[in-house]
């Protein structure tokens, strides 16, 4: 499990040290840096998958498109350099980057593993594979070669990252080989194909709902029914088209419909459920705004569901503006589905507000075992109370 991510001069942060738990929620004001945390993971993910021998962090790819180095290096306190550190349970890995502001990538200048730094020169003798120096990757243990850092790099390679702009209803969906896509896609564009290809595989035990077949297809169907009662799906190949049709219904009294004729929330939730039930223990899932197009009751259900996923051993990082999602997580903690110590909530505010009010740019309210929160920073899911106070004063 990753236990921390650190930034120096990255995006809107001069310095950030952000603890990570089994389930980490990122909340806060718009344009305060929440997405920057998600994007840092996505940059490693797309570089490793699409440019595994690169000596630079690729800013534009299938997961994210962040523009130039000038868009990524902190414009207030940075110049041409930034760094990112990832800490797992065993080691700390820190990459230092340099670039001209017009560059479309960040060149790796050094990699430190547990503070043992390797300077990277831009020549053939300094080869990076999956963002780590080749000479740092081998460690002899019990007569075998154990690649140093490979576990972390594979988790980043295989992680699921879903942006808030997920693919909506479609008449047809592409049919792709598992070896081609492998991950859900940042817009969830591979979800239907992966569910079709891997639907007969079993969900691992701690995530399987009882009283339903353990196959991923049927478990996805059962989980979707907790958001949309009566939910059923049908995935069919379209002959000679390398495409799939998706049929959906939420009542036994109707036939299957095209997704465009069902609630928009269905196609927004489906990639999340598929990603969660395709995940393996110790894998990583990042989700932006899981509450999109969901009724408040469904948003709370989403919080509980993601808490269950985290409790099963999948590390989940989510960005949310929904107090209902947060309350769903709190309910899961109170029900002992997930330990309070396995949960972190971070509240982000803009650097300007942090300086003006003399507070940290990121504050971390704590959830207790009974689901209560120890303190509520101004702006932290308090708008309902503020609005009610306004109406009380007005009356």
Structure report:
This protein has 395 residues and is α+β, with helices and mostly antiparallel strands. It is built from ten helices and 20 strands. The strands form five sheets. Strands 1, 2, 4, 5, 6, 7 and 8 form a seven-stranded antiparallel beta sheet that branches. Strands 13-17-18-3-19-20 form a six-stranded mixed beta sheet, sandwiched between helices. The longest helix has 17 residues. It is globular, with a radius of gyration of 22 Å. About 2% of the residues have low confidence.
In whole angstroms, how far apart are the ends? 52 Å
> What characteristic shape results from the CA principal axes?
globular
Structural class: alpha+beta
Alpha plus pi helix count: 10
Order of helices and strands: EEEHEHEEEEEEEEHEEHHEEHEHEHEHEH
Task: Give the proportion of residues in helices.
Answer: 25-40%
Say what oligomer this is: single chain
The whole-angstrom Rg is 22 Å
* Number of E-state strands: 20
Q: What average pLDDT do the residues reach?
A: 91
Sketch the major β-sheet: 7 strands, antiparallel
Return residue spans where pLDDT drops below 50 for at least 5 consecutive residues: 140-146
How large a portion of the residues is in β-strands, by DSSP E?
25-35%
